[in-house]
Design brief:
single chain; mainly alpha; 7 helices; globular
Length: 197
């Protein structure tokens, strides 16, 4: 296995690992309100999330930014809960300002990407230990693996949403509310389990 395959596969499997599902949950609640016709919006959000986590991954690996890992492990499920609650509030309200909502979502997605990137950096530093060569190329290969996994997750969410709404005739609003509440129910015990207070 080449070095590219090693780091790319490690990034890919790190996100798709059944035991490390927090990143998948965040992407799920991020993509839930959208359909394939909204591809520009979901592309923007996933790109902002990628910029955020790649930037903090770079800064952390090069020692520019350092945050206690316990704080990051606590904040990651908080980001998921926040996104789920946002979906519920947005779904429950009628006729909100769409552009302001998108601006808020874009800013929070970028910020949440920074938090998730710090989580990735802890894992990346472990797999990079002992490698005295350049960190940049392995980091980019790892980040590409993460990006590929994100695309897979978002596509799966879009396909499932399409099937549920088009074939099973489940109303979009109900689908988003039920699934967001479901994710919130999964994440709440994790937040208390990782509490830093």
């Amino acid at each position: 296995m080449s070095e590219f395959e090693l780091y790319f596969t490690t990034g890919l499997t790190h996100v798709l690992d059944i035991n490390g599902y927090d990143h998948v949950l965040y992407l799920t609640v991020l993509a839930l309100p959208y359909m394939f016709k909204d591809w520009k919006k979901i592309l923007l959000l996933v790109t902002l999330f990628t910029i955020g986590h790649t930037a903090s991954l770079l800064l952390s690996v090069y020692g520019v930014l350092s945050v206690n890992s316990a704080v990051i492990e606590f904040l990651i499920p908080v980001t998921i809960m926040t996104a789920a609650i946002y979906n519920v509030i947005k779904g429950a309200s009628k006729g909100s300002a769409k552009q302001n909502g998108m601006n808020f979502l874009a800013i929070t997605t970028l910020f949440f990407g920074l938090i998730h990137g710090l989580g990735f950096s802890n894992f990346f530093k472990i797999i990079l230990a002992g490698n005295s060569d350049s960190k940049l190329l392995p980091l980019l290969e790892f980040a590409l693996g993460i990006e590929a996994a994100q695309i897979i997750v978002v596509l799966v969410v879009l396909v499932v949403s399409f099937i549920v709404q088009e074939f099973l005739r489940f109303p979009k609003r109900d689908w988003v509310l039920v699934m967001s509440a479901f994710v919130a129910g999964i994440v709440l015990p994790i937040i208390f389990d990782r509490a830093i207070w």
